[in-house]
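Q: Could you predict the 3D structure of Ribokinase?
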Amino acid sequence: MPVKPILVVGSLNMDQVVRVPRLPVMGETLLGASSITFVPGGKGANQAVAMARLGAQVQMAGRIGQDPFGQQLKAALEDDQIDTSLLVTDTEAASGSAFIFLNEQGENAIVVSSGSNGNVGKDQRQMEHIFDALEQVQALVMQMEIPHETVELLIERAHSLNVPVILNLAPAHPLRRETLSKLSVLVVNETEASLLSGQPVESLDDARHVGAILHEHGIPTVVITLGAQGAVLINADEQGQTNIIYQQAPKVNVVDTTAAGDCFVGALTVALAEGQTPADALRFAIRASSIKVTRFGAQSGLPRRSDVGE
Ligand code: ADP
Ligand code: NA
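A: Sure. Here are the predicted structure tokens for Ribokinase:
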């Protein structure tokens, strides 16, 4: 029997990257330290590519513009054998773009122009196709670079079909507790965890605490990523008690942290879909994302299964 695909509904952006000696301040004109590089990105597309490179069957639904970037974003998915039959070309909006300034420490400042990503969910025909696809997928993966109403609607629909939903709440957006309780896995970074919970998340202890609160609100598995510190995963043990697993990230030579979180989400999803334990899935996701940060670009830097190992 063929494996059911993992469906990503989300954003595609052309990342337009300029290296800078430092990030500019308000009102400043700064000369870049490189010519511009165009790299396919967008949280949805990055997570789709991360999963495909790690060995999953992946389908991606989203919207591109009628411009050359749109075609390049689609081709990038197809290069990684991702099913693009649910990608629609939008006749009103341009393809999503991200303008990324990357400093010498590998840190970035990003402005996203959503473009056609902002219309995901507004086209009833496309939504019907997504609803149909949901009947035959293994899991649904989403982020918040498409309208939140669309994300909420798809969480409801997937939940009613018993399809597990992995939500990366990035950028952060408040969601009702009832909606959150229909997720299978929530992945957030420190900033997002803080915005969602209304509590500071500045240390590993804060992350443990906030993760446990979110878990007790009804989310079966909560993961908070902590950049160079690694990540914590909070779920329930066999007795139903709150269980917290921390995994440190290895020390690596950081080149570009763009899409580290996306790589993490993709790897975690693939490992869980393969039936790995949460602790093993967490280790796998940390390993994959720590490789990502040593390489340039969003999709261009995502590792393959052979790079990460089992
Ligand atoms: P986001 O990119 O969404 O802000 P994080 O910064 O928390 O997310 O990074 C996600 C994951 O990427 C981390 O949990 C870690 O595994 C890996 N990672 C990020 N930065 C580093 C780093 N400097 N060194 C090693 N691993 C890193
Ligand atoms: Na971060």
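Q: Anything worth pointing out?
A: The chain has a mean pLDDT of 96.
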